[in-house]
Every structure is written in C-alpha cells, then in structure tokens.
Amino acid sequence: MVDELAAVDAYATVAAATVLESVREGLVLDRTIFYPRGGGQPGDTGVIRWAGGQVRVTDTVRRGGRPVHVVEGEPPAAGSPVEAEIDWPRRYLLMRTHTALHALSAIIWRDFDAKVTGGNMEPGTARMDFELEGISVEFGRQVEACLNEELAADHPVEILFLRRDEALADPDLIRTKVNLLPESIDPIRVVHIVGLDKQADGGTHVASTSEVGRVRVTRTESKGKANKRIRIEVE
Ligand SMILES: [Zn+2]
After folding, report:
1. How much is the pTM?
2. pLDDT tens digits, 64-96
3. How many angstroms separate the alpha carbon of residue 143 from the centre of ligand 1?
C-alpha cells in the first residue's frame, strides 16, 4: 500500500520517501504527495532527489492501483531514500481550477437543474459540459457573475471520508451518482464546499473558495441537444 498524502493534505509541497520499485513507466514510492492523473485533474509534475542525483517527474499516473511517477533520466534504485517535491505553482493553479469547477457545477445544478455530462481541466483553464437545452453569451455572463459572487463568499472546503452506506444515503451526493462508484471503495472521499457543493472526488482542492480568486467564462458552446459546454479561466 502506498501512502497517498495528497488525499489528506493538498498543501504539502515536499515529502521524504523510499523507492519501492522502479517499473517500466517510472518510480513507485512508499509514500507520495504527487497526485496521479484522474477525475479530470492532470497528474503532478516535479522533481525527485536522492544522494546520487535527481530526476524530473513529467507526469504522475495510476497503474495497478498505485501512483507511478513518470521520470526523465536514470532513476534511483529500489530502497533508496529520496525527497520528492511537486511543481507547486502548477499544482496550486490546478487546485484553484478544480475548486472553481465544483462551484460551477453546483451553481448550474442549483439555479438551472442541469447535471454535468463531462469535463476536463488544465492548470488555469477548464471546460465543463451540462445537460442544458440552450446556452448563450448572456447566460455565460450571468453564470460568471454568480460564480464569482459565490467564490468571494469564502466557503470553506472540507475533505471528508464517509462510510459507503453513509455516502449512499446522503441526498446531496445522489446527484453526483455516488452509487456508481465501485463497491470496493469504502470509505468514500468527499469534497464538501460548505453551503454550496458536495461530491465524491479524489482531486486536490484549495481550503476556501476565496483562494480561487476571480474566474472568467471565456466561451459557451453547444455540443448537441441537451449538451452545452462552458469554458472558464482562473485569473
Ligand atoms: Zn472534481
């Protein structure tokens, strides 16, 4: 079992670890603060240092249930003590972007009864698709104003670990189809933007919505009937 520290502390930037295994795709550490790509959030990048040198981490992916650090260069041998540091400005921007997306999905659900059909993010930019019948530039402006108002309201963001039966019974979690998660997942990690949004999620988030700052709706697009796209940018 790898100790995945990003799940409980998104603000850790550097951590000591030991190399468990060097696999074809990269390095497996016994504990890591690197977030492996998933749930629409890109994997972390950074650097792994040890007594004999250092390697760049160009991506982090999940393989066989474990985070694998994709590295450039000659990796340290299994058993080596290392220090792993994430590229913090990039990760922090991803945290702000990810929390902005959750706030956006909450507003569209609350004010327009529309569910999310898909989404993706890069550091600072993101898109999300909704089960909306129509969309317009005016709608985008309205959503942008509402989103910025909610973000500025400084809602705390809590990470909860709920027992599966507890999560399935939570009416706030039903909309995000928590029942579709594999049965083996228990407890279920939940990201709760207090007073705004609650969803099962593995990603890294800021501690309060005010940390997101201002967000712009950069584009609204129709991707078909009952499928409308909103693109955002974190300023
Ligand atoms: Zn998420």
Report:
1. 0.96
2. 999 999 999 999 999 999 999 999 999 999 999
3. 19
